[in-house]
Design a protein that fits this description.
The chain has 309 residues and is α/β, with parallel strands linked by helices. The chain has ten helices and 15 strands.
Length: 309
């Protein structure tokens, strides 16, 4: 069983329009709404790939009820902590030229008792899990060390933990030594304080996390693929060129593949190849965090993986 955590659940809406610029009026050609937030995208991917998964997090209000209904329709197992909030909406506007514009609500503010209640809920839920994923932004009112607290609880129960967040939440979360972190290049550069860092600089910086006890650092590089860094070496994987439809949810797809890879004890090369294949397959669909198995199989065969250190 894999448990996915989403601390800022959302109703994701994908709008396809003929063109888009500020100040004009457009008729939407297609609208797709899904239960979203990074951890729910991860859960959807894991479910699609046929592995047992359960989603937990915090929801509230009419939007929260709709999110639960959508998940139930998909057949994804979930058990959320309810709070007196209105779950947020996130909008992705895609024009015909392939340019995406995202409008992401920040989420409501939660009280201290809600955070405390969720921490207890989390500790109970992960008891039966092999791997726990922690993804995305957090609701206002949560402490900056919320992910550090969750990692500490999971480590106490000897669980494998994947942390995928950014900024101060990542900095704090790393202090409790999760099993895997999955920043993208820009997120690592932000922590490093270096714009357009070289690949060697990124690897050297990530090795400092490996030396502190993190087992795997997976750095996503967008269309260029990803780096996988461990104490035993560094690998780079590159996907084939694809006709990209929608990139939203690709990082979450990668986390889902990593989670399954940890359960199945895949080698570094296998873990990297699968992570890139699933992530790339997500870019071929309009819906967020959805993949076709046939796309994964086709892309997998074309990925180039090499050990670079």
């Amino acid at each position: 069983m894999i448990i996915t955590v989403t601390l800022n659940i959302a109703l994701d809406k994908f709008y396809k329009v003929p063109s888009f610029s500020i100040g004009d009026v457009y008729r939407v050609e297609k609208m797709i709404q899904t239960a979203g937030g990074k951890g729910l995208n991860v859960a959807r991917i894991i479910d699609t790939l046929g592995h047992p998964v359960k989603a937990i997090g915090i929801t509230g209000g009419y939007t929260g009820k709709l999110i639960c209904e959508l998940l139930a329709q998909e057949g994804i197992d979930f058990e959320f902590t309810e709070a007196s909030i209105e779950s947020r909406n996130c909008i992705n506007i895609m024009s015909e030229n392939g340019v995406s514009t995202e409008l992401l609500e920040s989420g409501d503010e939660v009280r201290e008792e809600t955070v405390s209640s969720f921490l207890s809920h989390f500790a109970r839920q992960i008891a039966s899990a092999e791997v726990v994923t922690l993804s995305g932004s957090v609701l206002r009112g949560m402490p900056q060390n919320i992910y550090a607290q969750l990692v500490a609880i999971a480590r106490k129960q000897q669980k494998k933990i994947i942390l995928d967040t950014n900024g101060e939440y990542l900095v704090h979360g790393i202090t409790e030594i999760p099993t895997v972190i999955k920043p993208n290049r820009q997120e690592i550069e932000q922590i490093m304080g270096i714009e357009k860092a070289s690949t060697d600089q990124v690897i050297d910086y990530c090795m400092s996390y490996i030396n502190k006890g993190i087992e795997i650092v997976m750095v996503s590089l967008g269309h260029e693929g990803a780096l996988l860094i461990t104490k035993n070496g560094v690998w780079k994987g590159t996907p084939p060129e694809l006709q990209i439809v929608n990139t939203v949810g690709s990082g979450d797809s990668m986390v889902g593949a990593i989670a399954i890879g940890l359960v199945q004890k895949e080698s570094p090369e296998q873990l990297l190849r699968n992570a890139i294949a699933v992530s790339a397959a997500n870019t071929l669909t309009e819906s967020t965090g959805k993949v076709q198995i046939s796309d994964i199989t086709k892309i997998y065969k074309q990925i180039q993986v090499s050990k670079i250190r």
